[in-house]
Amino acid sequence: xxxxxxxxxxxxxxxxxxxxxxxxxxxxxxxxxxxxxxxxxxxxxxxxxxxxxxxxxxxxxxxxxxxxxxxxxxxxxxxxxxxxxxxxxxxxxxxxxxxxxxxxxxxxxxxxxxxxxxxxxxxxxxxxxxxxxxxxxxxxxxxxxxxxxxxxxxxxxxxxxxxxxxxxxxxxxxxxxxxxxxxxxx
Amino acid sequence: xxxxxxxxxxxxxxxxxxxxxxxxxxxxxxxxxxxxxxxxxxxxxxxxxxxxxxxxxxxxxxxxxxxxxxxxxxxxxxxxxxxxxxxxxxxxxxxxxxxxxxxxxxxxxxxxxxxxxxxxxxxxxxxxxxxxxxxxxxxxxxxxxxxxxxxxxxxxxxxxxxxxxxxxxxxxxxxxxxxxxxxxxxx
Lengths: 186, 187
Prior knowledge:
The complex is a heterodimer.
Chain A: H1 2-24, E1 31-35, E2 42-44, E3 50-54, E4 59-61, E5 69-73, E6 79-84, E7 88-90, E8 97-100, E9 110-117, E10 130-132, E11 138-141, E12 156-164, E13 175-176, E14 179-185
Parallel strand pairs in A: 8-9
Antiparallel strand pairs in A: 2-5, 4-12, 5-12, 6-11, 6-14, 7-8, 7-13, 9-10, 9-12
Chain B: E1 14-17, E2 30-33, E3 36-42, E4 47-56, E5 62-69, E6 81-82, E7 89-90, E8 95-98, E9 102-111, E10 122-131, E11 137-149, H1 156-184
């Protein structure tokens, strides 16, 4: 009888030894860590481009062409930056649009937007430094296979824009579009 | 031609105007902190909160919008998967006005469903804060949110208990065997 009692006690002890450490994990603590105690911040010194009247199937460049706007890193962390565009809308009725091309090209009611960063001479599909802006967010700086790195605090990049008007559009309408430049901690 | 005017050559018929604004040079003067947030060991079925701060560095009040964004794999931290469902992240409002030269806090809540299939997750999603602007260019700042859920602990205690019970049964069997063998032994 003594052996049976001993066996039961040993079995209970063993069961507890196996299960207690695992059960104890149920009360694990949640940890929240904030990185980048200060802020992430970038600035643009130019945000408007009043073009005036435009004609069909024509390229328009900002002036100066590639040093029109300066993007500066003002926060305290290194950043990667991106760019995304959207369709241009008639300000009186947004149902009339120019669709933003996904290749930088143009067509009927389809327009192209491009950017070029100062110092980039070979980037882009044409190898002239100009890169299409599309409705899908893509790298502004750095970009894949480039020799550059993320932008550090106080770094800056100058760039310009190019607009290619549609091959056909309805006249007499004031159009407006937006380009968003974004940044994330590298 | 009905309703459509075919344009040819240099016709100054269409205005493609990006309206200038007096505030255009200040539109992007804002910051967000922190730049990256880690939430580790978040239990299934529970929610956790943290606060983002938007710093409006402009001389005038500005509206800011807040939204989630799923970054592509190449932009995520190493080993992080796509956040399964944007609706698990909520804000008290999608838009907030921040007074000039001041800051405002936004409480972000991350709630994970109770289903076991979300255990042991390591995900990343970005929270984008955009300064509303009518200008051509605008700025959006992303906060990296990295969320890890607790491991599948619901299964492991059972495994431990099963192992313990098995050992117990073996020991009981041995004990019983020796007990009855001793009892059956002639005096």
